[in-house]
Amino acid sequence: MVDNRYATALVIACVLSVLATVYLSVAIGTQHWYQYSSPTVRGEANVSELRSLYEEFMSGEFDEKTYSDTLFRLNGTVGLWWRCVLVPPNAHWIKEPDAKMVLECRNFTLLEQFTPKYKEPGNHNSGEDMLRTYLWRCQFLLPLTSLGLVVLAGLIGFCACLCRTLTPTLGLGVLHLLAGLCTLATVCCYLAGMDLLHRVSMLPDKVDGSLGWSLYLALISSPLHMMAAALLVWAARSHSQNYYRMTAYRVA
């Protein structure tokens, strides 16, 4: 029989785990990790240049400099799997400067996720930037690892419920702690990668960058996983100590 305190801790841990997993899943699947604010388009030459950037962004080959410049100039947003720009719904950018903008997105393919980053974006002769390359790969792999750990914890917890035992609870806490650390590391890798990108690719004048809500969702999910881990570890240790006391009392 499980003490009410342990049962309450387990229920709260489950709720926190579900919330954290939902937040992280939404963050991974959306593109609002980092967003740029660009000035309004003015002038025929400027419009032609931006239209060319947009067409290459949507249909051209994958190139970090090309898509970065497009994101800078067209109010872009970039996430772990998506890169998007805000453009008018038609080609008449000058005639309708105040037209409602639409979001056009392209996903990062699995091959593009593992494409090396270069010291000078777009210049393959400048040499590979190992730090940016591995930061990008980590920000792609770590959140998937975090979700995998939580799914594994869920399966173990389900089996434990069927067997009516609290034995694996400590292991579940450790898995949630690792998941929270992976999520936190994802956010750190992403922020470090964006900072290094802005050092090698200077933002144009009057273009500002800011963190998006997807990144904050991922950031919130990390302490939620850690709180769930703390509750699970407490329940496991307290139940274990109580069990040993009861056993010693019965023996005595």
From TrEMBL:
Keyword Transmembrane: yes
Location of the protein in the cell: Membrane
Annotated InterPro entries: CLDN1 (IPR042356), PMP22/EMP/MP20/Claudin (IPR004031)
Keyword vocabulary terms for this entry: Membrane, Transmembrane, Transmembrane helix
Domain of life where this protein originates: Eukaryota
Residue stretches spanning the membrane: 7-28, 140-163, 170-193, 213-236
Pfam families: Claudin_2 (PF13903)
Membrane topology label: Multi-pass membrane protein
GO cellular component: a single term: membrane
Keyword Transmembrane helix: yes
PANTHER family, per database record: CLAUDIN DOMAIN-CONTAINING PROTEIN 1
Annotated protein name in UniProt: Claudin domain containing 1a
